[in-house]
Amino acid sequence: MRFTLAGDPGVPDARSATRYLIWLASRHKRLFTVGIALGVVWMVAQALMPAAVGRAVDGLARRDEGALLTWGLVLFGLGVLQAVAGILRHRCAVHNWLAGAYRTVQLTVEAANRLGAALPRRVAAGEVVSIGTADIGQIGHAIDITARGAGSLVAIATVAVILLNASMPLGLVVVLGVPVLMAVVALLIRPLHRQQQAYRDAEGALTTRAGDIVSGLRVLRGVGGEPLLSARYRARSQELRTRGLRVARVESLLEAAQVLLPGAFLVLVTWLGARFALRDQISAGQLVAFYGYTAFLVNPLRNLTEAVDKLTRGHVSARRVVRLLRLTPELVDPAQPVALPDGPGEVADPDSGVALRPGQFTALATTAPEDAAAIVDRLGRYTDSDATLHGVPLRSLALTTVRARILVADNDAHLFTGRLRTELDPHDRDDDDVLTEALVAASATDIVEALPDGLDSLVAERGREFSGGQRQRLRLARALVADPETLLLVEPTSAVDAHTEARIAQRLGAARAGRTTLVCTTSPLVLSRADRVIFVEDGKVVAEGTHAELLDGEPRYRATVSREEN
């Protein structure tokens, strides 16, 4: 697979979280490299300061004003260099953080678009939400910490070389002590990794459950299921809290180790340096320098432990992102898409026997609602089948061609945040006449009139300020504004009252005159207005005709549309 964005080269093989993080860093290779170089300069400048202070102290002890002035200026220069490099390093780090985080957002959105209708079946909604809210931050931190981590490694190596040249025993203490400290920290990283993975998985599952509860809250209240679902959510929330406490427990130990271990190391080196100074094995200036080195080493050691922590967190988050990006869509374009003739053509589903005549208003009545949904999925190419348009198999056409000519509008479609005008007319054609005609056909003009700013009113997320029937009418109006060559409507009036349904049934045929329209419904009000009704039982067409003809000649149809029991 390849992680790609428009205009960007992709990664030929990025099957692991580690490779994904490396790919993110390589997207801004120059800035990433400059950040690491500045991190090295920033830390090495700090590492050399104790040496300058020690030389100045030795000059002061010898009453050498020239040496004192020289090393004082060197110390000043190192301070300026550290400040400038630190500022520039931070700017690079922030840029790299944002680039890694938002590149992940872009790839996640691209993957969601690529998966299309298969996304809800392949990935839980909470998983995608967690990537966009929490995981991007951890991935950004993993990219950001590399500059400080690399600088800290070089600084520790620099200090070790200086100490080995000045005093072999003290140098060995530093050279051997740093790996020991890192090994102790590594003992805490592994359980932290496991706890974080379990916590992130549980968080994604709980986010999904919360989304399901909110989206079905009205139904839950209607059937009295709100207390039960609330209790279950509360129990899962407490489980997540327990997992979070486990993560925090390991993190607290890691934080304590970041303070305690470097502090103990500082005490040890200072004590040894003092003993060497009393034995005249090192000068007073060297003792001051050794103390400065050990005090300085606290910072790079903490940076290294922080780097291990953030890289671990980033790896956990990147693994979740890669798991999403590795998913492949169920439907793909053919190698050589077939061209279609212009104009409407017959849309047919050989599996069921349903065939939609061009320019006709057809109704589909089924004994089982799932049969209607399956037929529409095949006709709209949301599942692979032998369905055809103009006699050409849909699988031989580019998906963009199918989506442009066949529109499926069901009750799972969402209303998004923004102006209602933009919501109903996503292509921004700004044709008020078309919008008005669609609203009239969907019997939704009263909804717009009740809004404070009419079509310019803001719609909340998922249109939660509207009732279920109002959302259904607005979705129908949006489908009519799109004016596709073939429109497949699934139960477009199931949530409205009988009077509103009668108005929609009366106006829908005229609004779609000359276009191919299929309405899946068992409502007599809609069926009576259709040019032709197709009756399906057990997934197969068993009768066709007008509503009146089927009522007279097909008992099973009559039982279905009149809600009688067989």
From TrEMBL:
Subcellular location per the Swiss-Prot or TrEMBL entry: Cell membrane
Which InterPro entries is this protein grouped with? ABC1_TM_dom, ABC1_TM_sf, ABC_transporter-like_ATP-bd, ABC_transporter-like_CS, P-loop_NTPase, Type_1_exporter
Transmembrane region(s): 31-49, 69-88, 145-164, 170-189, 253-274
A GO molecular function term, named singly, is: ATP hydrolysis activity
Q: Where would I find the ABC transmembrane type-1 domain in this sequence?
A: 34-313
Recorded hits in SUPFAM superfamilies, A to Z, give: ABC transporter transmembrane region, P-loop containing nucleoside triphosphate hydrolases
What species is this protein from? Micromonospora acroterricola
Tell me the keywords, alphabetical order.
Answer: Membrane, Transmembrane, Transmembrane helix
Q: What is this protein called?
A: Multidrug ABC transporter permease
The keyword Transmembrane helix is annotated on this UniProt entry? yes
Give the top-rank taxon of the lineage listed in the UniProt record for this protein: Bacteria
Q: Name one GO cellular component term.
A: plasma membrane
Topology in membrane: Multi-pass membrane protein
- PROSITE patterns hit by this protein: ABC_TM1F (PS50929), ABC_TRANSPORTER_1 (PS00211), ABC_TRANSPORTER_2 (PS50893)
Domain (ABC transporter) ranges: 248-563
